[in-house]
Amino acid sequence: MAKAKLEDISQAQKERLFHIDFKLRFLGTVSRADLASRFGVKAAAATRDLSLYKELAPENLEYDTKAKIYNPSQEFTPLFSCSQSQVLAALGQGLGDDYVGTHRPLITAESPTQLNPPQLDVLATVSQAIHQKKALHIQYRSLSSGLTSREISPFALVDNGLRWHVRAFDRKRERFTDFVINRITKPRLLKGKLLGNHESKEADIQWNRIVEMHLVPHPQLKHPETIEQEYGMQKGILKVQVRAAVAGYVLRRWNIDCSENHELNGAEYHLWLKNHQTLYGVENLLIAPGFKRTTDTATGSHGEAVLTTMEWGDVE
Length: 316
Known about the structure:
By secondary structure, the chain is of the alpha+beta class. The chain contains 8 helices and 11 strands.
């Protein structure tokens, strides 16, 4: 019997095969139930799809008889290619993980090019760790420490507007922090170590705390009503709720003046944080425009300490 060829398979079945390939690569597991749930096929049809995938890529998956699921083998090589935007949309929003083909816009549209989209092989291992609640051993480069080896327990991806991070517990420093995806190399799942309660998502205070920011047009604007309309403000105010762990990224990305007396003068400052006190206890404010904290060492014009701007998101 002739071996099946991908080009001879129907588009509908290609979609299901792509789904298998995607889940193996980025989640590290796939089952008949996944196919049945996503595509509404019977168990027998799901079995045939998995058998066909194994025929097309026999070295890609292994069956766990105890758990009754398929896992990627050490020799796994993707059967399908996909773009960074497709992968990130699928992981972040549940979109695009079952589409095979060329992505084209429906109308003319342009978005700024990201200079450093995540490397998919690294992202795949990181997302597997998140999905399977496992720790990772990584090689990591930072501006402060250079190249180091780390064990981290990741639980979420974070897009700060410029690049992608992974939120994780750092076993070396025993704290939660963000790691830039493209600074990670040689990620490896640690299958034998169970995650402790202290390194779970539920233990990350900054992640679980919700901060409500009240944003208003910057008082120095000549026509504040323009900003009110642009941001859909109600009675001149926009209320935004974000996790404390990402508050600094939001404030920096949108150039929100965080000074108590709206003292920043640049033309880029269209918004002012009216309820400055909401940032009390938020940790990643080093990059928040104009934010001042009284416990740091650099002294500002009024005697209070000033947080100087570092590289955006260089938390770790």
